[in-house]
């Protein structure tokens, strides 16, 4: 009986270790995907913009500390993507973003999204005016 329990515990330990390794690789590839989409550049730009008010004497320390927060941010965002996409889907997305078209999308996506949001805000005001007209 003791041997059976030990074998079961060993199998659970091996399975847990295997899952942890798979999950670590999945997260690593998901973070790679996030960076490939252009989010990394957006975060770096945000750090630079926010740091514009930091005196030059403190800029290096600020930049180092701010960049140190990125790993935690990438982990949280990766968890969001990992809940929605399988490991295989993330692998396919990484492959796409490594193509010329994927690189073009990553480079232009943030600007396009910002412009589209401006269009959406303008449209929302237009529809609000229509709603007020019909009150």
Put the structure in a nutshell.
The chain is mainly α and 135 residues long.
Task: Report on this structure.
- By secondary structure, the chain is an all-alpha fold.
- It is 89% helix and 0% strand.
- The chain is built from 6 helices and no strands.
- Helix 1 (2-36) runs parallel beside helix 5 (87-97).
- Mean pLDDT is 87; it is low at 5-21.
Sequence-ordered SSE layout with sheet pairings:
Elements: H1 2-36, H2 39-50, H3 56-68, H4 70-84, H5 87-97, H6 100-133
Helix pairs in contact: 1-4, 1-5
Share of helical residues: over 70%
Count of DSSP H/I helices: 6
Low-confidence stretches: 5-21
Q: Which shape, going by the Cα principal axes?
A: extended
Q: What's the multimeric state? A: single chain
Number of E-type strands: 0
- Along the chain, the helix and strand elements come as HHHHHH
Structural class determined from secondary elements:
mainly alpha
Radius of gyration: 23 Å
Key features of this structure:
about 140 residues; mainly alpha; 6 helices; about 90% helix
């Amino acid at each position: 009986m003791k041997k059976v329990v030990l074998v079961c515990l060993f199998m659970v330990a091996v399975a847990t270790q295997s899952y942890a390794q798979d999950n670590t690789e999945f997260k690593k590839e998901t973070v790679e995907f996030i960076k490939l989409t252009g989010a990394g550049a957006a975060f770096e730009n945000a750090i630079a913009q926010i740091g514009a008010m930091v005196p030059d004497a403190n800029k290096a320390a600020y930049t180092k500390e701010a960049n140190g927060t990125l790993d935690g941010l990438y982990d949280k965002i990766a968890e969001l993507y990992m809940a929605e996409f399988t490991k295989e889907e993330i692998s396919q997305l990484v492959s796409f973003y490594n193509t010329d078209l994927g690189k073009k999308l990553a480079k232009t996506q943030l600007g396009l999204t910002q412009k589209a949001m401006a269009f959406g805000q303008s449209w929302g005001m237009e529809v609000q005016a229509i709603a007020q007209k019909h009150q």
